[in-house]
Amino acid sequence: MSVSSKEFCTSETAWCPGCGNFSILKCLKQSLEELGKDPHEVLLVAGIGQAAKTPQYLSANSFCGLHGRALPVAIAAKIANQNLTVIVNSGEGDSYGEGGNHFIHNIRRNVDITHFVHDNQIYALTKGQASPTSAEGHVTGVQTEGSMNTPLNPILMAIAAGAGFVARAFSGEPEQLVSIMKQAILYKGYSLVDILQPCISFNKINTFSYYQKRIYKLKSDYNPYDKVEAIKKALEFGNQIPMGVIYQAEKRTFHEKNSVLSSGVPLLDQHQDVSLIEKYIREFV
Amino acid sequence: MYNILIGGAAGQGVDTTCAILEKLLKQSGYHVFSTKDLMSRVRGGHNFTLIRFGAEEVASHSYILDGIVAFNQETVELHRSKLNSNGFILCDPSLSVEANNVVKIGMNDIAKKLGNPKVAGSISIGAILKLFGETLDHIRNVFAKVVKPEYLDINLKAVEIGYDSVEQQYPHKDGVYGDWMLLTGNQALSLGAITAGLKFYSAYPMSPSTSIMEYLAGKMTEAGIVVEQAEDEIAAINMAIGASFVGARAMTGTSGGGFCLMVEALGLSGMAEIPLVVADIQRPGPVTGLPTRTEQSDLNFVISASHGEFPRMVIALKNHADAFYQTIRAFNMAEKYQIPVIILSDQYLADSSATVEPFDINKIKRYCASEEQYDGEYLRYRFTTNGISPRLLPGTTKGFASADSDEHDERGWITESAEIRVQMMDKRLLKLKKLELELQEPEFIGNDSCETLFLGWGSTYGPIKEAVTILNRQSSKRFGALVFGDVYPLPVKYLTEKIKKAKRIINVEQNATGQFAQLIREKTGIVCTSSILKYDGRQISGEQIAEQVLKEAGK
Which chain B residues are closer than 8 Å to A267 by Cβ? Predict the structure, then answer.
């Protein structure tokens, strides 16, 4: 496939007509183009699920791996070559359920990657079971008496775990979504954007109009650097759902902290001196 | 050849004492082999190390002792039955020992008087050097590398006191190994990885693999390697795959239990055709088994781990030199065929120290995938005649690379086409045909026209080699052995040649079911006539193999 250098082509998808993923894909393409990224500089990483098919539909380097395991792949790819813009697109089941352990610990690592979670509050690819963010009482074919589990609050979790960039967006508000995506990509460190997205096939509760009635944009005087305020905002999820960059902080990245990577030379391009190996051999003599 | 056992409770300094003593013996010219017997606890219990040394090469340990250095009463009670008739027991007068040759030094009191109870071990080092007719020439040099400068003089004083407290009992023998290396299997493996150009190592700590991560972490900054302790083994292997996809030589290491968690991602490496090296340092299973002990029971598991079908390679490490050279080969094979390569080692090899000829880095070749330039028209999974598609590293050219765990077309895009599925499966499996031409045949040991042929793999190499020597010396029958390093795919040329003359084929394995014999039967139809299997967590020795064979023959 030939493309002009700054253009990210999109191709035919396997998503249901009307799916929120279309808007997310379009906004991602627009964000990358507006940031002036070349497709070959970008690596899109995903796990498994409908959202995780995103890398397949955009011309760039892509890695579609295992369910829940996008983050370890993504951070190691960034460690190996820091010139790559590494973006994870995956659903909330993949990111917070199967991959929950990696979600917590990669916040602690703070590798400079961007994590877009397509959060439709349902398991769609497996046809409609509860997800980690499904509301309590949500009835499905499996949760026949309604989900009894407390839904995760990914925004609160990410702030609590120490993430330096935590935002919420809605697939139905493309203008704001593009703005948040660009900020997240530009942020130096791990950035999380939880993107609310209606599933038109399996989630009859959290519909487009459900979200539209509840979401509101953070005011322009909101200070995302105030952690206590951010936690208060993170706790708002119900009739009022705040949208925007909820928390932001400057934190040293993995690359800045790591003595091998801090020079700025990509790990891949660091060459090893043969005399070093001779020295290591002599250490055992 | 001499063989001594140094034992005590965990925390009493057995490890440090042995580490120093081994180096001193090697500096005096001896070939040294030492193996650790550890309990899974931090303090107390009973730990011991066997140090075997001689003017000739020593390939493995022995349970027949010339001396016991006992730091506690338990050591005496547990091991005195293995002592030679004139063997010595060296200990503190506080222990009650009745034996022919007891050497008592008031180590605890002297150490206290010197001002540090911990130097008791150094007193015993001095005594051992004297007992075996060694000099104190290297003590300052060796101790300076191990103890902090402020403790150097007190330790040297302790060695001298120990030296002067006893009389020489054994003659010094001249060896030529003073300039060789002394290192553990895991250190050799790690050094091999660095030499191979390792850039990224991720692992979750698990005995007995952790010392790989420790060694690499110590060299991290200088050698330009990122060593990352992962949150779990699943992350560890996926990280290694991510780094490798982008083009960094990457590896992960674990033991069987951790490998269990890595299994899904092993298949990802096979499906997405991403080079990967995984070191499985085996310990007894199932589950947590015997965490600090040895076994060879992961063979069946690693050759079939993960669902579906994909090419892989499994290399078992035979000894310390092998750990270095085969690790380098593992990286080359992984990169050449874009497959996962599993290195199988075990606690015995991982933790044992041996004298090894300094590694020759001129022998080493690094395989590099061709670096073609692609502008747009790049097919990550292009159909080729040998199944190996050209590899593009993301970000290095204008082309895109894609990796996919779903079945995919040549571009790397998801497909459900029946036709492409078959073509893509065939493409991946085609790689094995070429790989099979590069397999290394097992090493043959012993008498060329042997009637009895031992079959072994991995770290039983040393014990089998020793058993063959003992048997060919003690018996009128002729013995030989084939010890395999490449175990999957299985090279069969030597095997089919050698069994023609053999009347008996005996597989020697550190597991309960004879997994390797089963593999041989499956691949060749050859059936072993009997088995020597050990699965108590302790490595079989050469004399134990020989003894068992002679006992069977006597029936």
Answer: 199-200, 224, 226, 243, 248
